[in-house]
Write a structure and sequence with these properties.
By secondary structure, the chain is mostly helical. Helix content is 81%, strand content 0%.
């Protein structure tokens, strides 16, 4: 009887250790995935902001920062294809990618979170270009904006599927 109680106690103790280890593993995995999501939102936004700050002379962001801090930001201009790509499309690509990850982060607990986040991102790309072509917001309509933003959204979807929806 005493030996049977000892075996049951030992089994219960081992079960608790295994369950705790599984919980710790799941918490660490969840933290790693949340960090992965955070960096896939933050890094593209930071690069996009940097492009707007240092590659354009007069933007809303430059004006606000220069008025708040009372300094003139450095401005870089190069006459090459890479600079043209940065100023014309890189920010759109980076922000569409970051938006898809941010929306997935908000909707990841829902059944079709990835579908809705990508659908919203694609819709927003079309809406912004439509508003630009009709003169409701500043900017120039460019079909390449839409194509490259949708490409960035699909890249984000592939990364999310491989990382979260195995």
């Amino acid at each position: 009887m005493l030996q049977q109680n000892a075996v049951l106690t030992f089994t219960a103790f081992c079960s608790k250790i295994i369950i705790r280890q599984q919980i710790v593993t799941r918490i660490l995995t969840l933290k790693q995935k949340n960090l992965f999501l955070f960096f896939n939102v933050a890094i593209p936004l930071i690069f996009g902001l940097s492009i707007y700050l240092f590659c354009y002379k007069t933007t809303y962001i430059n004006t606000i920062i220069e008025n708040l801090v009372d300094i003139s930001l450095p401005y870089f201009y190069y006459d090459n294809i890479f600079y043209s790509f940065l100023t014309c499309w890189a920010c759109d690509i980076l922000w569409a990618y970051a938006l898809t990850f941010a929306l997935f982060f908000c909707l990841k607990d829902y059944k079709n979170g990835l579908f809705f986040s990508s659908l919203f991102s694609i819709s927003l790309s079309f809406i912004i270009e439509f508003l630009q072509i009709n003169g409701y917001i500043n900017g120039t309509f460019d079909i390449w904006d839409i194509i490259l933003e949708i490409s960035a959204i699909f890249v984000a979807v592939i990364i999310i599927k491989r990382s979260f929806l195995k």
